[in-house]
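Hi R.,

As promised, here are both runs. First protein below:
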Amino acid sequence: MPIDYLVSALVTLLVVVDPVGLVPTFLAVTHGLPAKARKQIALRASLIAGLILVGTALVGDWLLHQLGIGVPAFRIAGGLLLFLVATEMVLGVRIHRQSKQAEDALEEHVHNIAAFPLAIPLMAGPGAITATLLLAGQAGGRPLSLAVLFGVIASVMASCLLAFLLASRIERLMGVAGNVVLQRLLGVILAALAVQYVIDGGRAALTG
């Protein structure tokens, strides 16, 4: 098993999706709903987001080929996009944006909040889709690496499901200050990963 690839994929998707960081949004969009309904929404959102990311991993390389985009170019572009996500996390912009999306969803009386805004765009948003495409590109079509990536996606979605089911307890345990500190720390880690993607893409483009 490609251990380096496993660790890289797991850390990247965990940081980008940020299951614990989604807890406040989950609580906001499910406010006032009974516990049974919350569980159903948590499960459905995790399944939808997981299917989106698996589909992205399967067709990502083919799509890049059809568009005539090289993997090095996509790594650089994806790294830059992930760096923007990381900047939002460090500066606290992402939390505000997620809260605003949750409020908009409630105001518009969205019936299937599992699909929007939870699965899309919060769990399987631009950052997660970009990261999955990059990781699928690194897999290079190797069955074992793709299987590892699918397992990582399933693990991250399971983490989201667990975080949603324990949302009330996590909120009380971490408090406002704990959530803010975790968000900033994860943002710094993601920024470093994003820079590494840019470096790898630039090196591959120059040597290719």
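And here is the second one, sequence first, then its structure tokens:
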Amino acid sequence: MIEHVQEYWLEFLTIASVHLLAVASPGPDFAIVLKHSISYGRRAAIVTSIGVGVGILIHVAYSLLGIGILIKTTPVLFQIFSYVAGAYLLFLGWGAIRSPAPKNIGNVEIENVLQLISDKKAFMVGFLTNGLNPKATLFFLSVFAVAVSPDTPNVIKLGYGLYLALATGIWFCVLSLFLSSKKVTRFIGKRGYWFDRIMGVVLILLAIKLVMPV
């Protein structure tokens, strides 16, 4: 029993270490959380971050069900998945680029300049951004194929997945708190729409990278 616990603990530490490096690297999740922090404020960014974390469960589900093997062994299917994800990021990026400059701001507080977005929409954007991210797909396929033993029970794998979802959500929530702090918003000031447009360009570049052959 103790040997099994030690085995799973080593697997967990391996997965947690690799995940820390993966989640800290810039990507679509980071870009969309940054965009929402600037455009919509702290609450929207946190809700988006929660959506990103919950989106991890999509990858956990197909990894446990074995669908991941089908995606990995069927390049055409994975390519279609990449095109869908690229189209979604392109849609988000184009919307960000078209972000209008605020009019007649004067000395109004920066908080009042923020645009509005519903919690449901913010959550779904985060959820879909992560759920449709092919890089996340490759990450989970690699982790569950290399770091996790085939003999590891599905309930343990599910525990790994729940941890990854929780850790991802917490990471981006903390990032949201920083990006939406008063110091950051004051630094961005009335030129926040330019940051929004820059994030739009980043999202479009990420979309192009997804569909371009390696």
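A quick note on the second one: The CA atoms of residues 59 and 137 lie 6 Å apart. Let me know what you think.

Best,
J.
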